[in-house]
Amino acid sequence: MTNEVAIIGVGMHPFGRFEGKTAMQMGTDAIRAALTDAGLEWRDVQFAVGGSWEVANPDAIVGMMGLTGIPFTNVFNACATSASATEACADAIRLGKYDIGIAIGMDKHPRGAFTVDPTLVGMPKWYGENGQYLTTKFFGMKANRYLHDHGISQETLAKVAAKNYRNGGLNPNAFRRKPISEQEILDSPMFNYPLTHYMFCAPDEGAAAVIMCRADIAHRYTSKPIFVRAVEVRTRTYGAYEVNTTYAPVQEDVSPSVYAARSAFESAGVSPGDIDVVQLQDTDAGAEIIHMAEAGFCADGEQERLIAEGATEISGSLPVNTDGGLIANGEPIGASGMRQLHELVLQLRGTAGDRQVGGTPTAGFALLYGAPGTAGATIVTT
Fold first, then answer.
1. pLDDT digits (tens, 9 = 90+) for 261-278
2. Which domain holds residue 272?
3. Which of 13, 217, 262, 279 is 20 to 30 A distant from 328 in Cα terms?
4. H/E element holding 192?
5. Which residues span the membrane (predicted)?
6. Of 166, 122, 169, which Cα lies nearest the Cα of 310?
7. Is residue 35 in some structural domain?
């Protein structure tokens, strides 16, 4: 049996800093919000999939929600964790094993720049403690090379970040809700050229949840189901040159974002031109620019003109990161992709408020990129 899959409920705990509140507690808030949105009780959920970087056993959240005995699968795929959870949840319904399930993401990261525990990839602990394992170095080099190769200015990076801060100001769930001018962004401390402080996202805290069901029963819970047309997760075909160390030969390759996006469009039977609203991984402003091309929305080097013309603004022809993206929301890793889905569902329902894309959007695309080279692409439609 193969079923179509619909999203019938979404919920979020705001992203930011919440002293005295655990990731698990934020996760339960997101779950309850999604249940309320779908008009369901926890006992109606037949299975769950969840992911986190900081929480070793997110399945323990059932002890806080209610011990109903449901199967719970823990997943982790770095920044692509939520795509993996979404895929596992949708596939279990698509294959007929369950009727209703929930995908959950949650995290609570310490303050400061992202520093991955090096022991997770076989490096000595001191390597991270003395600052040699900061992801900003990699992202700066990657952006610098891309901008050089394709004639894109640092000012365009500032335009991307300023746009996302403006969008975050319209989002009550965002971490950073104060608009920052392009000049302020350019003048902020240089982290790794060409990326300044305000061009980066920050690790923070938050949670999000998405409830899915068989499409043929979705009308029982919502008058406007959003259909999961494709979720595809891909890795590189050879080597790596990412933030994590690798024992494989280091060789440049087409990004896994390209593979994931192409596969998602093929599976969904749509093209980039059919998409009305886009969520792209913007760990930094350069990443959003790069992913515009890698996902197929423009050619390499075309971004500078599109961004200058306002194409990626909420009012533009290709709205990108309408909720402020990672730059405004920060990144609690496990929850990041669920936030993207939450925003796409609101946009396709027409309930995104001040940041609503005009014209009745019918298709949304989300891209996650997780080190050391895993990407997830999701396509949803009305």
1. 999 999 999 999 999 999
2. 5-111+201-381
3. 262
4. strand 190-192
5. none
6. 166
7. yes
